[in-house]
Amino acid sequence: MRRTGLLLVVVVLLVVAGAAVGHVIGRRADTRELAGLIGSEKAGFFADPAVKEALAGHGIRLRLDPAGSRRMADMDLGGYDFAFPGSTPAAAEIAGRRAVAGPSVKVFSSPLAVASSTPIVDLLQFAGLARRAGGHWTLDVKAFVAANQRGLRWDQIPGNATFPVQRAVLVATTRPADSNSAALFAAVLSQVTGGDLAAVTKVFADQGAVDTTTEEPFESWLSRGKDFAPMVLVYEAQFLDRGADADHVLLYPSPTILSDHTVVPFTTAGADLAELLATDPQLQRLAAAHGFRTAGAPGAVALGAADTIASPDEPTLHALLIALEERLT
User: Which CATH architecture fits 111-258+303-328?
Assistant: First the structure.
């Protein structure tokens, strides 16, 4: 009797184990591998094991290549199921270069911001370039451009004993022709200067050689701090996801642009992924955990109409970048 009972238990366990193995094998057999181009600022989100697990639950595995959002349109897009740049203008340019399998989908957003540190922000405040309002720091873009026009250096700020270097007061950016963050920053600069292309050009030209993806200067700043650059242009999400040092400070350009990170699908599978990323509650929660603004998590800092400008349409931004690139080369 005992042997019969034991045998029944073993049989049941084998059946359950077999069913579980069959379920796993079935899921693996149904898994689709999708290839995509993504803005480098989203690499941390997609590398998260929880995100990979959530996608696997829907039978999706991703093979991703990071690239500057503005460079994607000039790349060979064959073999990719989707592109995921950092804004709708970049998405529109990409969609104009290759046949798409559906409409572009806005998945989440993140405003442009500036990563800095407490000693630097104190200097900026003393120089009249930054102020604290509504519980967060802002960088006065108009005052910043004016300071750049007159050639303000850090060592010229009165009482500066913390960073008295003979370097121009600049925000380190990427190359506008390559990277969405710098392209949108150029749009902000153009707006506050009334379209003064010479003033906009000087902000970028004074930096010298720059990186092509938003993640590169941010990583350099995280590892080297103000020795790399006192201020670095980032997305808010990058800073919230990584900038955990107590001395780190996030400033919002005033005004800034809320950048909509948008998927451009090239295949039916890419269109399915875009819809999943935008609507799946678990993936949206994980995006919010990585600092992105979603419908359910609009952001810790409320940005009103006076704090932001609308992102330019693709033809307007493209014309600005072409004119800017001609002056920079």
Answer: 3-Layer(aba) Sandwich (3.40)
